[in-house]
Amino acid sequence: MTGGVSSAVHEVTVDVRGARTLVILRQYPGGLGLHETLTNEIANLELVAGSGLPVPRVLAADAAGDSTDGSPSLLMTRLPGQVELNPTEPGSWRTRTAELAALVHSLDLPAPTFRPWADSWIAPLAELRVPADAQRPGVWRAAFEVMAAPPPADRAVFLHGDFLPVNLLWSGGAITGLTDWNGIHRGSRAIDVGHCRRYLAALYSPEESEDLRSRYESIAGVALDPWWDLFALLHYDDSQSRWVRRQVAGRCPVDACGMTARVEAVVKGALARF
């Protein structure tokens, strides 16, 4: 299927006495020690089952890859819908996205406490670098200085951990699926929303990124902490245009040349909230 980056995702037809069912097979590369990643995803899917979220159900798994040629594998139900990156009603699309994020954050479920410099793929604080094509390098340096301060206390909520448009399935203007469940934590809600904001800026515009924040705050009834929002935004680096193109996989136009400038504008806006 389209858009898999860390794993291969296949749609499989299962035929049982003439009754055909579509299921999803997710396989990680063998030999890379990713069985723990899959084990975590299985446990997380079982945790959120029955939560009211549109999530796939685990059918079978082989985390060690013993019966799948060494590839850690997970068989899941196929959720209806598809990734929608060209919405006909962008405002409604952002509202539904914000509503789902707020629903995730309302769940009273256990998860590890998020550690800002250990539990994500952001560069270590001392290794943060201004993107090569930054238009205003001072904006990035100012953001790095803010990150040097200890993270502020914020109410810890249940986090998806990879809340991006490419992990949302849609049908008929409604979200029908939330996928990629291997990064749950409890931490600031601004982490999930900030990651999504970074993606909207990279793919669309600073205005749409800011609009998502506004809609989320209105729906959840709480302001997003600017430090944690900025932390999520600063996951952007010189490799991001390549990763975004791979994830989008032709499902919408990607203006790679203007990507850094758009994210930079959102970083500047986040700084103004301090």
TrEMBL record:
The keyword Transferase applies. It comes from the Bacteria. The keyword Ubl conjugation does not apply. Residues 13-217 form the Aminoglycoside phosphotransferase domain. Keywords: Transferase. Pfam families: APH (PF01636). Gene3D superfamilies: 3.90.1200.10. SUPFAM superfamilies: Protein kinase-like (PK-like). GO terms for molecular function: transferase activity. InterPro entries: AGP_Transferase, Aminoglycoside_PTrfase, Kinase-like_dom_sf. This is Aminoglycoside phosphotransferase family protein. The lineage of its organism: Bacteria, Bacillati, Actinomycetota, Actinomycetes, Micrococcales.
